[in-house]
Amino acid sequence: MTRRLLVTGGAGFIGSAFVHHVLAHTDDSVTVLDSFTYAGHRGSLEDLPAERCAVVVGDVADPEVVERLVADVDAVVHFAAESHNDNSLADPSPFLRTNLMGTFNLLEAVRRHGTRFHHISTDEVYGDLALDDPERFTETTPYNPSSPYSATKAGSDLLVRAWVRSFGVQATLSNCSNNYGPRQHVEKFIPRQITNLLDGIRPRLYGTGENVRDWIHAEDHSSAVLRILDAGEIGRTYLIGADGEKSNREVVEMILGLMGRPADDYDHVNDRAGHDLRYAIDAAPLREELGWRPRYRDFEAGLAATIDWYRENERWWRPQKAATEAKYQLVGQ
Ligand code: NAD
Ligand code: DAU
User: Fold this and answer.
1) How far apart are the CA of 210 and the centre of ligand 2, in A?
2) Global pTM exceeds 0.85
3) Per-domain boundaries in the chain
């Protein structure tokens, strides 16, 4: 049976990867709801079949547009968010509006219409781990967010859980680790370093560079979300990760190697306030109960393909680069 999906934030990095994935692997049709903030990109939705993919420019914090679109679909997959920790430290207010009020509006609309809802969230809601902690995050790890961004994502998750319990909303949640791949904004760690090197600038490591992130390709995140939408248990939270722990220093050294530069050709810059030390995901329930498997198991190969994408798609990232670097320069990063 084919479905009509509403994908919020579908012009962003992961939302657009999901839209491409759904159109390639199902017969479903998609309506994207995206307000095209600085992070939304028309070019990320180019060359998609118009008869199966419509784009509506609108704000998830606007209850009228949300009501109108939710009334017409079978399921909502909610990616739209302010997503960058550094921005949330500079100005938290859009994070509260989009991440909390936007999620609230969507929950009220799916509650009215009895629509299936999948909420996209982050492993950052669990806070951070010590470098030598043998435990990884699981769906029962207590919430302990550190930044305004992760606090608003934690709040949005709790709203979803409350709407499931109090109003019987048919929702699932997923909390994923750090994504990489094509079409990621140049403010984020990996694209920033790749495009810096393409511009002849040395990569910038916050603090010591020992912080660890658990990397997963955005295509694998997308296949996991589709699997949960198809077969996930209502009310459940699924953690999505692909056993990709690497320190930031290791990632920078790998990028330098792949781009033909010496491994120590980077600079240390000011650390991020409240910088989480380590994230690590235990995705066993997703693998064992839903049979999901990541395709991109070789991080270095995925990174090499990502570097090629940025080399070949300067037209996509160039317009954002100077303004992004100017913002970082203001805070010594
Ligand atoms: P992104 O910043 O690349 O994209 C966000 C998209 O949402 C953009 O297209 C933007 O225009 C849109 N948007 C923002 N505010 C909106 C509003 N008020 N109304 C409608 N659209 C709006 O973000 P991303 O990295 O693709 O993240 C997508 C989701 O995945 C977020 O919910 C994020 O918390 C979550 N997530 C991201 C990662 C990661 O590594 N990037 C990991 C786990 C979870
Ligand atoms: O864990 C999931 C989260 O991953 C998502 O919820 C967020 O939306 C997403 O942005 C990402 O958050 P991070 O803060 O981990 O990602 P970011 O790309 O900003 O930074 C990754 C790591 O690299 C982090 O430890 C900070 C560091 N860093 C970042 C930049 C931009 C640097 O060392 N240098 C940099 O220039």
Assistant:
1) 13
2) yes
3) 4-179+216-240
